[in-house]
Amino acid sequence: GAGVSQSPSNKVTEKGKDVELRCDPISGHTALYWYRQSLGQGLEFLIYFQGNSAPDKSGLPSDRFSAERTGGSVSTLTIQRTQQEDSAVYLCASSRDRGLFEQYFGPGTRLTVT
Amino acid sequence: RKEVEQDPGPFNVPEGATVAFNCTYSNSASQSFFWYRQDCRKEPKLLMSVYSSGNEDGRFTAQLNRASQYISLLIRDSKLSDSATYLCVVNGDSGGYQKVTFGIGTKLQVIP
User: Cis link prior to B10 (omega < 30° from 0)?
Assistant: First the structure.
């Protein structure tokens, strides 16, 4: 079946602009995660959605970052007033449930802030 | 102490060699464990789950040692195509909620 999809695959933006990144999880997966990965670095957890529960936002690096998940499916990660240090690959993953089940990742969005 | 620790490597091994990676975790309430593989500039992909009794998938063997709080991945007869970064993932209860933690990854380079 279809995997996790993300768009755009690449995004170049000027410092100070806002960007929106989209994630379509696997159908039926209730858990959705956003991660960030800088070149040569490990995964940095950003935010997690589980069903209708309040999201776990503990990983968001600043209040310029926000995310929402509409109808328990598609999610959008928004970065306001982008900075050069926001340049990274943003990965989305989904799973059947949080905690016990494996995650499936999308191909990521490569964000470059100039 | 980090919640999940891995030696970042790189591990440079010749083709055909056997190589093993360990991953230690600090939360004794951890419940499920996985190994992921990440190729350069690609997303992580699930390699295998790690079961309490240990499990094998072809040339790959995963083990869990709850007493010492580590998981391991053994790769036999290494192939050039095994070159990648191997991430361990630990899921478990933390302060009453489920938490997923990725290790930083161990880089493997298989040399001809």
Answer: yes
How, if at all, do strands B11-14 and B106-111 pair?
parallel
DSSP letter string, B18-70: -EEEEEEES-TTEEEEEEEEE-TTS--EEEEEE-TT-EEETTEEEEEETTTTE
Question: Considering only CB atoms, which residues of chain B are within 8 Å of chain A?
Answer: 31-32, 34, 42-46, 49, 87, 89, 91-93, 97-100, 102-105
Per-residue pLDDT of chain A (114 residues; tens, 9 = 90+): 689 999 999 999 999 999 999 999 999 899 999 999 998 888 999 999 988 888 889 899 999 999 999 887 999 999 999 999 999 999 999 998 766 688 999 999 999 999
Q: How far apart are alpha carbons A38 and A43 in whole angstroms? A: 8
Inter-residue contact A50 to A30 (CB < 8 Å): yes
Q: How far apart are CA A110 and CA A9, in angstroms?
A: 6
Q: What are B13's two structure tokens?
A: 């091994």
CB atoms B104 and A100 under 8 Å: no
Q: What's the rounded Cα separation, in Å, for the pair B63 and A16?
A: 48
Q: Compute how many other C-beta atoms are within 10 angstroms of the C-beta atom of residue A68.
A: 12
